[in-house]
Amino acid sequence: MTIRLGPxxxxxRAGRALxxxxxxxxxxxxxxxxxxxxxxxxTVGAAASLTDVFSDIAEAFTAAHPDTTVTFTFAGSSTxxxxxRQGAPxxxxxxxxxxxMSPLVGEGLVNGVVDFATNSLQIATPxxxxxxxxxxxxxxxxxxxxxxxxxxxxxxASELFARNSVPLAPSSYESDVRAVLTKxxxxxxxxxxxxxxxxxxxxxxxxxxxxxxxxxxTTTYQAAxxxxxxxxxAATLFVEFLTTxxxxxxxxxxxxxxx
Amino acid sequence: MTSSPARARRVTPIPIGILAAIAVALxxxxxxxxxxxxxxxxxxxxxxxxxxxxxxxxxxLCSVAATAVAIVLGIPLAWVLxxxxxxxxxxxxxxxxxxxxxxxxxxxxxxxIAFGRRGLVGQYLYDWFGVxxxxxxAGVIIAEAFxxxxxxxxxxxxxxxxxxxxxxxxxxxxxxxxxxxxxxVTLPLxxxxxxxxxxLAWARALGExxxxxxxxxxxxxxxxxxxxxxxAALDTDREVAFALSMILLAVSLAVLIALRDRYLRRGAS
Amino acid sequence: MSLAARIAMERPDFxxxxxxxxxxxxxxxxxxxxxxGKSTTLRCLAGLESPRSGNIIISGTxxxxxxxxxxxxxxxxxxxxxxxxxxxxxxLTVLDNVAFGPRARGVAKRDAEAAAQTWLERFEIAxxxxxxxGQLSGGQAQRVALARALVTDPDLLLLDxxxxxxxxxxxxxxxxxxxxxxxxxxxxxxxxxxDPLDAMVLADRVVVLEQGQVVQVGTPADVARRPASTxxxxxxxxxxxxxxxxxxxxxxxxxxxxxxxxxxxxxxxxAIRPEAISVHHQRPEGSARNTWPGRITSLEARGDLVRxxxxxxxxxxxxxxxxxxxxxxxxxxxxxxxxVKAVDLDVYPA
Lengths: 259, 269, 350
Fold this sequence. Notes:
The complex is a heterotrimer. By secondary structure, chain A is of the alpha/beta class. Chain A has helices spanning about 15-30, 50-65, 75-85, 100-105, 150-165, 175-185, 195-200, 230-240, 245-255; strands at about 40-45, 70-75, 90-95, 110-125, 145, 170-175, 190-195, 205-210, 220-225. Chain C folds into two domains: about 5-230, P-loop containing nucleotide triphosphate hydrolases (Rossmann fold), CATH 3.40.50.300; about 235-350, CATH 2.40.50.100. The interface of B and C includes residues 174 and 175 of B.
């Protein structure tokens, strides 16, 4: 490619800049460098209670980082933790509660742990509360379900019942909080123990029965980057994004509390 | 098998041998791995723990009950499919075969739609009698019977079709009523098929997970059968999950051996 | 009449129309080739199948009347059936097999087993009572099947090819034993067979079926001596000639046969038993009036004897001993002379 010089003297500024930019662009294209992190996909393993709000957050994140795609896998936090331990392709982990996260920290499997939200429990009933549940004390006389005790939602429920001196005898221990919600929506049970955010996300299909704040359990949500997955950079960006005002606003709108 | 390698090589084409070896590896390694990773030292403790004993008791109770349901309802159905000359038999047969190919969870969902608290039939059970099949042991039995009965029906129908109808003719000429013929000739003649079908159904019922957890729920002592207990244990104590899995494997193996013996004896006679 | 039956049905190639009757204690043999409808007739008598039209009366009871809409089920007919392959219930012992009928009719277990035991003893197989059918020989199984059918004292006993399931060696001895047992049966007996020897030995009266129609009825001796058709003759192995008789001579095509009977005239059938024909190298002299030359077309062993077929005019078959075959050096293609005495011929109106 020839460089056309001006009619006389040195090349014009534009003329000087063009070949340089082209050369740099060619070099960059070959070396794969751009002004933002390279094109990547990250998989985030998140607690079931984050199902709806995380899709909104992912949208916002992708808007800010267009070349990163975020995919999710939702399940009970302890289930995800176990998957991380087994080496599943999860790049970031968002847990409901600190209990599933701390062993992973101790085992050196994750780092960059941040608290990004809180949540509290609520009783969900089928639309219009047909069984007239008004408090935890009404549950032993009704048909209700909770999460299995191994997942944070279940552990929190167990603690909640103990704190309020109500015996815990559900009809079933469901695999995660979404499964509980499904049973309530289907009117298979009179009530289910879920998070306030779950009741909100279900819209008007379920009716929530509040638990007084002084009797309630607060669950702190933590997120961390899984080490040695090859997508640490993008994963870190995602985890950091959760603490930004933008993400916090989305979380608040969904009913989560501040961390 | 005591043939020398040289003889085996002569008889088995090499590509087939390689593929067969891969198949054995695919099936064998996970099972051998299960045996190897079982925490043998902890096994006595695990087996006597409430979780395990409850789950085992429940599994045995429900699988046997489901098999009984399959026998009582399945044999008449097989008889109708094989013998009755009414239109619509192919449709019914397709219906019966459906649970065989349906994903178990889908089966569970269908059961909820039918027998859940707001189900097509379930709502009347609940509103009139206060009976709720989900979350009950009866619900587990129904879920297991749903997936297991087709095995028995298909086995027995096949036997009825291939049975020589002239034995029944001979019985008729001797003055036997249709009920007497059924009881004393038809059923005894297909007894081996009934047993084989029952064993298949029982094994299927024992291992049922998806329909059970979706329809009946997961409550230790009431609905948490062995497969559900294994699933729950995976999140808490993996070694317990291994141990419980090992028990299921041992039971399945025992059944398989017993069944092989029956087939061997039948082949010899 | 213990049995009076008229049965009609369709077969792929022809229509079957049979009239059959039998008296108490009489053994009627239904003889015909496979596919002639005889097994189906038996099944209709038992009620296992329904004919297109039929009328069956057993011991005065109308069990089948297609015009009147009567069609009793097998269990309601007083019929005993012995199947070709016996169909002994494989999961029951011999005793339970034989006791099955009474027990099915509500007789108490002990009484049924006693009755069964009696019949087993009558057939000399009491020692087999605890065996399973799979452990029996063919002849033993047949006796068990017979006992099982007779223990209910049926008005009509039906046997379908009773000896077909046996190998050639046992057939002869079982045939004579069966003859003895059948003669002791109270009710009527109808048996079907394609083997003329079975019919000849076992039956008091033979009904010959051809193409679904009854072509001859008579005692075995009658049918064997005077077959009414070529088919029957072939069945019983007799040479059959048709011709015109006059003055003791019958013209059969171009040949003339001298028969002893001078009175008979008109269209006749001449039956020549193969055993009555002798074979010679040259034209024989002597009292035999009928001689025919010809070439041997086949030599076939028939038990201890040899059947020689010759392309004489008319074609004839003779039966000789193996010794004669050797002595005369008989072989296919050999030129021989056949002769038979007039007195050894049977001639009767066609």
